[in-house]
Amino acid sequence: MRGLWKEGAGIGLGMVLFGSLWPWSWHAQADIHRYHDANGVVHYTDNQKYVVKSLPASGQEHAFNRDGVLVRVVEKPDGHYFFVLNRLTVAVDLRFRFSRQHNVTIPKPMRQVLTLPPTEELFVGKLSAQAGGDWRYDYDFDYSNDDIAQAHSETSTKRDARSISLPPGFVSNKTTGSYFSAHHDLASPVAGRYRIAQGFNGDFSHNKLSNRYALDIALPVGTPLFATRDGVVIAAVDTHTGGGLAPQYRGKSNHLRLRHADGTMTLYAHLQAGSLRVRRGDRVKVGQRVAASGDTGYSSGPHLHLALQIDKAGRRESIPFTLQGSQPVAGLWMLGSALGDE
Fold first, then answer.
1. CA-to-CA distance for 331 and 320, rounded, in angstroms?
2. Is 120 exposed, middle or buried (0-12, 13-18, 19+ CB in 10 A)?
3. 130, 163, 196 — which closes off a domain?
C-alpha cells in the first residue's frame, strides 16, 4: 500500500494510493468511505452502518478474506490521518508495517501494536513530512485476536487505540473535489423488464479492482442497449466473435466505454458482434441506443456487464452507483424505459 505526497500539491499520488478517502453519499444521510482491507482490497462502506462480521471459529480471519478490519486515510495539507474500523465483534490487535520511507514522520503509536475495541472506528495517528519537499511511504497491516505483541519488530508494548486523540486542528473527515462528492445514479440500460444476475462483490467474477462494483444483467443476445448517462465514446469494439469460459476468450469481449463530464466512465461489455451504433469520439445522450447485448469474450452466458469506473494513476477502479434510483442487488428484477430514440 502506497502513499506519496508532493509539496504544494493538493492530491495524493501513487500507482495505488491506499488509504485515501473518497466520500460518497449513497443516501442523503450516509457517508460512504473508501477503505482497504489487509489484502489491499478496496471497500466502500458507511462507518456507522457497516456489516458487523463474526470471527471464524479458528479464532482468526481467513487469509483469503482479511476484511474484518479496514483502514482509511484522510489526506490533508498537514499530513495523512489514519483511521481504523474494526468490524469484528471482538477486540483485535493491529500492527502497521512501513517500508520505502522517504522524508516521513511516523508517530510512535503507529509503530506499536494497537488494541482495537470491537465494532468501532478510531483515529490512530498522522503521518507527515519531516522536512520540506516530497515525502512518501509504503505500508501494509495485519491484525489478530491473538497476542501479536511479541512478534512486533520494534517493541512488545501494546497501546490501546482509544487513548490516541484526534488533533484539534482536524476539521473534517471529508476531502473535496473527489469523484464521490455527489451521488451517481445510472439510467436503465434496457427498455423493459430485466434481472440483475450478479451484483457488487459477486463471488463468481466481481472480485477485482476494476469490476468489484459491477453488475451482470441477464439478457437475451440482441437486446437493445441504451446509454445510462451523457458522455463521449472513448472505446468501441464489436469485432470479436464467440464466448465462453475457456482461457482463449479472455480479453475478447466486445465493449463500449463512455467518459462523462465528471471524469467517470461507464463500461458496457460482452456486446453482440457488429451491434455498435456509435464510434470513438461520438457524443452520446442518456437514453440513446448504442449497441446490443451479447455473449462475447469470457462469459458464462448472454448478459450485459455494466460498470462505473474512474482512472486512478493509470489503473481503472470500479465505484458504487445506484441504478434507476435503487441499490442494485443480485436477483432483483427491474423495469426500464428508453429515454431517447432508437
1. 18
2. middle
3. 163
| The predicted structure's pLDDT at residue 132 | 86
Predicted local confidence at residue 247, as pLDDT: 87
- Report the alpha-carbon distance of residue 69 to residue 61 in Å, rounded: 10
CA angle 253, 244, 256 (to 5 degrees): 15
Can you give the residue range of the structural domain that contains 29?
2-163
Q: Yes or no: say if 17 and 313 are a contact pair by the CB < 8 Å rule.
A: yes
Amino acid 231: pLDDT = 95
Separation between Cα atoms, residue 216 and residue 202, nearest integer Å: 9
Q: Which amino acid is at 282?
A: D
Give the separation between CA 197 and CA 71, rounded to whole angstroms.
31
* Among the listed residues 182, 185, 179, 211, the one whose alpha carbon sits nearest the alpha carbon of residue 286: 185
Euclidean distance between CA atoms 72 and 70, whole angstroms: 7
Q: Which residues contact 98 (CB under 8 A, 6 or more apart)?
A: 106, 110, 111, 137, 138, 139
Q: pTM for the whole thing?
A: 0.52
CA pair distance 13, 173, nearest whole angstrom: 19
Tens digit of each residue's pLDDT (9 = 90 or more) over 205-223: 555 667 778 888 899 999 9
CA 49 to each of CA 31, 85, 200, 255: distance values in angstroms, whole numbers, following the listed order: 10, 12, 17, 35
DSSP letter string, 221-232: TT-EEE-SS-EE
Distances (CA, A) of 280 to 3, 115, 232, 236, 274: 35, 53, 8, 6, 15
Q: What is the pLDDT of residue 294?
A: 94
Q: Does 123 share its domain with 32? A: yes
Q: How many domains does the chain have?
A: 2
SS3 state of residue 341: coil
For residue 213, tell me if it sits in a domain: yes
Percent of the chain with pLDDT over 70: 70
CA distance 170 to 177: 18
